[in-house]
Design brief:
heterodimer; A: 406 residues; alpha+beta; 2 domains; two-stranded antiparallel ribbon; B: alpha/beta; Rossmann fold; six-stranded mixed beta sheet
């Protein structure tokens, strides 16, 4: 311990006495840490954002459709040939289930929206059942939500997403007004609250209409999706199992037949996101780490120079009773002090850079304690890894030769 | 007997040639002696000093220091012996340039694992003994040659070693300062210390009580009595 403190002091003093050289030596390492910290902050920010805003759409919500999470084109095309889910399947689940708090059905397409002379191209049109769990994150801002009577009577009514409402009705109240979806007229009955942008993409640019009405003119059921939410005291697995059995019945599958539909949850979506992005992120951080290796090599080089320069000092220390271990620790500590100092600077700059990126591009960065620990920990490891060989060389010096060194 | 050396040899390989730096040395030195080891360059006196100082090990023969056989110890054991038993004074002082006098003198105690308060006390004592109590915060480049050498002497003394081993301690000093330093050694010897002085200068060697002359790796003569 005594020697450790002594070594730390020595290390700091040695580095301080060559301030400029120390700084220049460290630049590479600092850049490396900045790169890695920035990447990690942006990635963690993105992950956090995704899990918070996109995927958690009401607790333990799950979905059923015929495609599911297709991981490749082959699967996708194969599943596309399956029999569509339809309102019959929805009704079966709705009436026979004993485990669900809520179940809905949904189809989507794009269409041009018009109000008088205003026109919005390629807006999302969502056909949906009343009280669908899909709308949990969207509170009603004005008017009312879709109700059972709207779907029962196939009413031509529409609930507007926030962006659609403000674009079509910059002034005045949309409620009660008539808009066109494609060529059909709908009466606006409600406007949803604003949810904001997710990764620069608006989540408020759609219009919701009764699914029953939409199926009157929209016949592609490939992406007909059921949304279900289990009762509070029922596990997602249990509810999913029940829905499977009901659907097997409604789709006329025999016990030996494989299921021709997919059940998946928000969790599964999150896992898919992680599988898809995890590899990319790992590669990004890996590439960023190359600069750490380069920085480390520079540090190793300067430590070699330092050992050579101080050969005589090493000889003197040995003559005064320093063991190999003492010399090894001295130089190792010096190199760790060097890299951890660089790490500290790098972490601070890395956070600044990610904040800057976040402020200028709107990309969600996130500063975490784990990133700080990572930055400093990796720095210490770089210091030890690239410092060990120079320190070992120093420790092994023969005292007689070292003392005679000019 | 403090130092017992028997049939000591040291051979080096210089290219294809083998150099016999020491070629069968027998030497006994008692505690409290003041011995000058003399010889021209190439006589083997530096090699002998390195082995006496436990910086190097002999090719063959035995070296007992204070009863302990040190001729075949490993590196770290030798480091411990150097730390406890030997105080070096070098021709070029060999102080750490970036450390002040206090820290330079403190070093052997740090490696010995002496606690801080005791270190402080002993360093101050040693600096007082060499008359530098007012220079503790000075770095080597702020001290004169004589003062530097006295810092080095304080460093050699601080751990109360069995032997003070001085290698041409006046080689880089003018004659007046040299005289001062030699007075300092006389005082150290007077305090009961064993002093080994390696030199090629007759007038410096004259300060010692015993002179061992080396030639071609052997002891040429070993005379007692003050020549001064």
């Amino acid at each position: 311990m005594r020697l450790l403190i002594e070594g730390l002091k020595l290390g700091i003093a040695a580095l301080w006495s060559h301030r400029l050289r120390t700084f220049l030596t460290l630049l590479g390492h600092i850049m490396g840490v900045i790169t890695v910290i920035t990447l990690v902050s942006l990635i963690q920010g993105l992950n956090h954002y995704v899990s918070e805003k996109i995927l958690v759409q009401g607790a333990n919500l799950f979905y059923v459709d015929k495609i599911g999470l297709a991981f490749n084109e082959e699967d996708f095309l194969k599943r596309l040939r399956r029999r569509d889910l339809d309102m019959g399947d929805f009704e079966a689940v709705r009436t026979r289930n004993e485990t669900l708090a809520n179940v809905g059905a949904m189809v989507q397409t794009n269409a041009t929206l018009k109000y008088k002379k205003r026109k919005l191209n390629q807006m999302g049109v969502v056909g949906i059942t009343a009280d669908s769990p899909l709308f949990d994150p969207y509170p009603i801002a004005s008017g009312r939500a879709l109700r059972a009577e709207d779907t029962d009577h196939r009413r031509r009514v529409a609930v507007l997403g926030h962006e659609v409402a403000t674009e079509l009705f910059p002034i005045g109240d949309p409620i009660g007004e008539q808009i066109r979806v494609g060529s059909r007229k709908y009466t606006v009955i409600g406007v949803l609250g604003e949810r904001g942008k997710v990764l620069g993409q608006s989540t408020d640019n759609f219009v919701a209409i009764p699914i029953t009405e939409m199926l009157g003119w929209f016949h592609d059921l490939s992406f007909f999706t059921l949304l279900a939410q289990p009762l509070p005291n029922v596990s997602t697995e249990e509810a999913q199992e029940e829905v499977r059995w009901i659907l097997r019945g409604s789709r006329g599958l025999r016990p030996k037949d494989v299921e021709n539909f997919e059940v998946y949850s928000s969790d599964a979506l999150m896992r898919l996101y992680q599988t898809l992005t995890g590899g990319i992120f790992a590669v990004l951080v890996g590439v960023g780490s190359i600069s750490l290796v380069v920085g480390g090599i520079v540090i190793m080089n300067i430590m070699m120079v330092s050992v050579t320069e101080r050969t005589r000092e090493i000889g003197v220390r040995k003559s005064l009773g320093a063991r190999r271990k003492d010399i090894l620790n001295q130089f190792l500590l010096e190199s760790v002090v060097l890299t951890v100092t660089g790490g500290l600077i790098g972490v601070l700059f890395g956070f600044s850079v990610s904040m800057l990126v976040s402020a200028t591009t709107g990309f969600p960065a996130r500063i975490t304690a784990s990133a700080t620990v990572l930055g400093l920990g990796v720095s210490a490891i770089v210091g030890i890894f690239f410092g060990v060989y120079p320190a070992f060389r120093a420790a092994r010096l023969d005292p007689v030769t070292a003392l005679r060194y000019e | 007997m403090l130092i017992e050396i028997e049939n000591l040899t040291k051979h080096y390989k210089m290219g294809a040639e083998e150099v016999h730096a020491l070629d069968g040395i027998d030497l006994w030195i008692e505690r409290g002696e003041y011995v000058a080891i003399m010889g021209a360059s190439g006589s083997g006196k530096s090699t002998l000093m390195n082995i006496l100082g436990c910086l190097d090990v002999p090719t063959s023969g035995t070296y007992r220091l204070d009863g302990e056989l040190v001729s075949d110890l490993d590196d770290d054991r030798l480091a411990a012996i150097r730390n406890r038993q030997i105080g070096f004074v070098f021709q070029t002082f060999n102080l750490l340039p970036r450390s002040d006098a206090f820290h330079n003198v403190e070093l052997p105690l740090i490696y010995a694992g002496v606690p801080r308060p005791e270190r402080r006390r002993r360093v101050e004592e040693a600096l007082v003994a060499v008359g530098l109590s007012d220079r503790t915060k000075h770095r080597p480049n702020e001290l004169s040659g004589g003062q530097r050498q006295r810092v080095a002497i304080a460093r050699a003394l601080v751990n109360a070693p069995s032997i003070i081993l001085a290698d041409e301690p006046t080689g880089n000093l003018d004659s007046r300062t040299s005289a001062d330093i030699m007075v300092a050694f006389r005082k150290i010897h007077g305090g009961g210390n064993t002093v080994l002085l390696v030199t090629h200068e007759e007038d410096i060697a004259a300060h010692a009580d015993r002179r061992v002359r080396l030639k071609d790796g052997r002891i040429e003569s070993d005379t007692r009595g003050s020549a001064a």
